[in-house]
Amino acid sequence: MKHLPVTSLLTASLLACVSTSALADVQPWADTSKPADQRAAAAVAAMTLDEKLGLVMGYTDPEQLMKEPDDIVSAAIKADVAANHIKGSAGYIAGIPRLGIPAQWQTDASIGVRVTGMERTALPSSLATAASFDPKITEMGGIMIATEARASGFNIFLAGGGNLAREPRNGRNFEYTGEDPLLTGRMTGGLINGIQSQHMVSTMKHWAVNDQESQRTTVDATISKPAMRQSDLLAFEMIYDLSNPGSVMCSYNLVNGDWACENDYLNNRVLKQDWGFKGYVMSDWGAVHSSAKAANAGLDQFTGYPCCGHHGAFFSAKTLKADIASGAIPMSRIDDMAERILWPLFAKGVVDNPVKVGPIDFEADANVSQKAAEASLVLLKNDAIDGKSLLPLAGVKSIAIIGGHADKGVMAGGGSSGVTPVGGNAVPGLEPKTWPGPVVFMPSSPVEALKAAKPDASITYISGDNIKQAAALAKKSEVAIVFVTQWMGEGLDNPLELPGNQDALVAAVVKANPKTIVVVESGGAILMPWAGKVPAILEAFYPGARGGQAIANILTGQVNPSGHLPISFPASNAQLAHAEIPGFHKPDGIRVGITYDEGAAIGYKWYDVKGYTPLFAFGHGLSYTTFAVSAPKAALDGSDLVVGGTVQNSGGVAGAAVMQVYVSPTDWQAAGWEAPKRLVAFHKADLTPGGSAAFSQKVDPKLLATYDEATDSWVIKGGVYHVRLGQASDDLPQSVDITLPDSRWSAVH
Ligand code: GLC
Q1: CATH for 625-746, among 1.20.210.10, 3.90.1150.10, 2.60.40.10, 3.30.43.10?
Q2: Which residues sit opposite 480 in a β-bridge?
Q3: Residue identifier of the C-alpha nearest atom 7 of ligand 1
Q4: Global pTM?
Q5: CATH of 371-575, one of 3.30.40.10, 3.40.50.1700, 3.50.50.60, 3.40.50.1820
Q6: What's the pLDDT tens digit per position in 268-304?
Q7: In ligand 1, which atom is closest to the CA atom of 251?
Q8: Ligand 1: distance of its center to the CA of 429 in Å?
C-alpha cells in the first residue's frame, strides 16, 4: 500500500481546507481554468531545484534500488520508492505533495495492465485490433484498459506502440499496428485517445526505427532522413497528430549513429521543433547512456532505474547538479524538462482527477475484448469444397479439433506487454518460462466455446503431438479444424516458419480429410506451405481474453468476419527486404548495424516495387457476404484531395466492409515516391443485406508528398494521380484520375 509521509499528509489536509479559488491564489497552477502549459510553468516556478530533479528520474524494483550507493540514490528516495512503487509494476516517480503534484505510477502496456501478480483483462494484440481497420475499436480498448489501470492505482500508461512492421520477423510486431503509416496512425492513435480520455498520460513508443528485437539495445539503424520521415516517422507523426500523446518513449537502439535517447535530430529537431511536441521524452528502461548529451538532445526523464542495462544513474541529482554547475546543462533545460513532465499531468487531467484504487468490472471488460476480437479476426481463405464453403460451419455433425492447446485457451505474446489473465495462465509451464516468457494462454477455450455453440455436434479434441493419431481422427470426422500457434516475445525475433512440426501436422490432416480449416494464432505474418491445400484459413493473431469465444462465433457464423490484414504475409523468405536480421538469435549486446536501403518501401510497397505477389496481401480479408464497390470519387477541396466511394452489401447476411483507397502517381519514380501506391484512406461500414454506405475522407497531404531534407518541407509533384478504391491492396477494381497541383509546405507544424 502507498503511505504518504506525515508532512505531505499535513499539507494535503491543509490544502483540503482551502477552497479551490483560494487554493488557486496560493497555487496558481491549481486553477483548472488556466491552460496546461501555464499551469506547468507556474508550478515549476514554485519548485526548488531538488523538486525539479525529483521529476526527471524514475525508479523500479525497490529491492535492487536499495543496493545503490546513497550518493546516487538517496536514502529518502529509496524509502519513498519502497513505500509507494506498486509491487511488480514498471515504474514510479515521487510526487511533490507540497505543491499538489501527484506521484507518477507507470504501468505497461498497449494490450492491458501488466503487473506481476495482478490478473487483468487482455485486449487482443495490437496487430489484431489493427486488423479491424476501425479506430473506434482501439479507442474502446484504450478506454477499457485505462479504467483497469486507474483502478489499479496507475496514471501513466506505457502504451501506444507505433513501430512499423518493417521487419516481418520482429518479435514485437504483435504490439504494433502493422506496416502502413496511415493505418498505424489511426489505430494506435485510437488506442492513445481512449487511454488519455480516462485522465491518464499515454506514451507513444518506441521512438524510433526500433524495427528489430535482435540486439535491440545496441543495433544501429541507418536510414536516410527522407525515407525515415516518409515511413517510421510518418507513422508516429500521424499518431501524434491524431492523439497528442503526453509522452514519447525513446528506444534502445541507435539511429544513424546516435542512441535514440540522445538523438538531437529525433528528439529536438523532429519531435519538439518540427512537430511542436509539448510533452516529455521518457527513456525506455535502461536506454540512457549519458547525462548532459541526453538532456541537451531532448531526453526529459530517465525512467525505470536501475532496471535493464544499468549503465548509470545519469539523471541522478548528484550528476545533474554537477552538470548544471559546470554549465554542461543550462538551468533552462532543467526547467524545460520539469515543465514538459508536468504539462501532460495537467493537460490529460491527471492532477485534477487523482488516481485511486477501486473495483473492476471484469465481465464488462472481457466483453470489450471479445467485441474487439470479433471485429478483427481475418478470414484469409474460404474456398468451396464439394460445392460449398466450409465456413461458416453449418449442419456439421462431427468435428475434429487438433492442436494449439485449443482445449484450454488462446495464445498471447510475451514480454513487457504480457498481461496475466483473469483466471490465470490456461497452459502453464511452457518454455520459455523466464523472460520474455512465460508463454501465456488466455483461459478462453475454442473447443469449449464451439461445444457450447454447437451442442448437437460431436466435437473431439486431440493435441496433435501424434500426427498419425490426429490424421486418423480427422479422417473419421466430417470436418477437421487445426489450430497452429507462433509465440512471439519482446527481445526476440522470429523466423516466419511455424515452430515445431505444425506444418507437417496440417499437411497430414488435410491429406486425411480435405475438409480442413486452419486457425492461426500468431504474433504476425507466418509462412503457410500448406495454404494451397487448405480450403479455409482464419487468422486470429493473439485474440485476447475471450479469444476462444470470438473464434467460435466466427467459425459458426454467429459473427461475420470483417478483419483485413494490417501486415502482408510473404509467400517465402525470398520476398523479404533483408535475408538476415543482424545479430539474430545471438547473445545480446553485440554491436550490429542494419541499413534500411529499402527506405520507405515497407510491406505492400516493397512487394509493388519488386513485383512480388505475397501469399496474402495487405488489406486482404474475406466475409460471409459479398460487397459491391462503386467507382472511386476524387475531388479537390481547395488544395486538399477528398476521396471516397460507396459500397453495397450484395450478399445475404449482414457484414462489415472495409473500403480502402490507394493513390498512385502516373510515374511514381518521377514523383519521387518510394513505391507505386500508398494507402490514403479507409472506412469500415456495417451493412445489412442490400444496404449501402458512402464515405468521403480528406487525405492528409503528407501521404501524397515526399520529404525534402534540404528545405525541411513536404513536396507534392503536380500532375495526374490515379485514385483506386477496393477491399485490399491487391483488389482495386476501379480507378479514377485526378490532377494535383504542385505544392510545398514546411514540415514545421
Ligand atoms: C521494456 C520495453 C518497454 C516497456 C518498458 C517498461 O524494456 O521496451 O516497451 O514499456 O521496458 O517495462
Answers
A1: 2.60.40.10
A2: 400, 516
A3: 285
A4: 0.97
A5: 3.40.50.1700
A6: 999 999 999 999 999 999 999 999 999 999 999 999 9
A7: 8
A8: 24
| DSSP conformation letters of 429-465 | TPSP-STT----EES--HHHHHHHH-TTSEEEEE-SS
Domain edges within the chain: 371-575, 625-746
CA 102 to chain centre: 27
d(CA 608, CA 450): 40
Nearest CA to ligand 1 atom 9: 416
Atom number, ligand 1, closest to the C-alpha of residue 91:
6
Distance CA 203, CA 578 (A): 30
Q: Would the CB of 539 count as within 6 Å of ligand 1? A: no
Angle at 411 between CA 619 and CA 516, to 5 degrees: 65
Q: Residue holding cell 526548488?
A: 48
Q: Other CB atoms closer than 10 Å to residue 185's CB: what's the count?
A: 26
**Alpha helices per DSSP H over 197-231:** 225-229
User: Among 106, 108, 145, 172, which residue has the most ligand 1 atoms within 8 Å of its CB, making it the best to mutate?
Assistant: 108
Helix (H, G, I), strand (E, B) or coil at 547: helix
For the chain, percent helix, then strand, then coil, each to nearest 5?
30, 25, 45
285 alpha carbon – ligand 1 mean position (Å) = 6
| Ligand 1 midpoint to CA 158 (Å) | 8
Q: Ligand 1 centre from 716 Cα, in Å? A: 38
Q: Look up cell 509533384; give the residue.
A: 717
Q: Measured in whole angstroms, how far is the alpha carbon of residue 7 from the centre of its chain? A: 41
Confidence of residue 25 (pLDDT cuts 50, 70, 90): confident
List of long-range contacts for 45-53, beta carbons under 8 Å, 24+ apart: 46/99, 47/96, 47/99, 47/338, 49/321, 49/324, 49/334, 50/317, 51/96, 51/98, 51/99, 52/334, 52/335, 52/337, 52/338, 53/315, 53/317, 53/320, 53/321, 53/334
**pLDDT, tens digit (0-9, with 9 covering 90-100), for 529-579:** 999 999 999 999 999 999 999 999 999 999 999 999 999 999 999 999 999
Asked if residue 116 has pLDDT above 50, the reply is yes
Handedness of CA 74, 80, 86, 92 (dihedral sign): negative
Measure 539 CA to ligand 1 centroid, in angstroms: 27
Please, which pLDDT band fits residue 310 given cuts at 50, 70 and 90? confident
The CB of 213 under 6 Å from ligand 1? The reply is no
How many Å lie between the centroid of ligand 1 and the Cα of residue 304?
9
With a cut of 60, say whether residue 729 has pLDDT above it: yes
User: How high does pLDDT run on average in the chain?
Assistant: 96
- Ligand 1 in reach of 284 Cβ (< 6 A): yes
CA dihedral 433→437→439→444, nearest 10 degrees, is 120
Please choose from 93, 157, 158, 251 the residue to mutate so as to test ligand 1's pocket, defined by most ligand atoms within 8 A of CB.
Answer: 158
C-alpha cell at 358: 477501486
Q: Is the CB of residue 92 below 6 angstroms from any atom belonging to ligand 1?
A: no
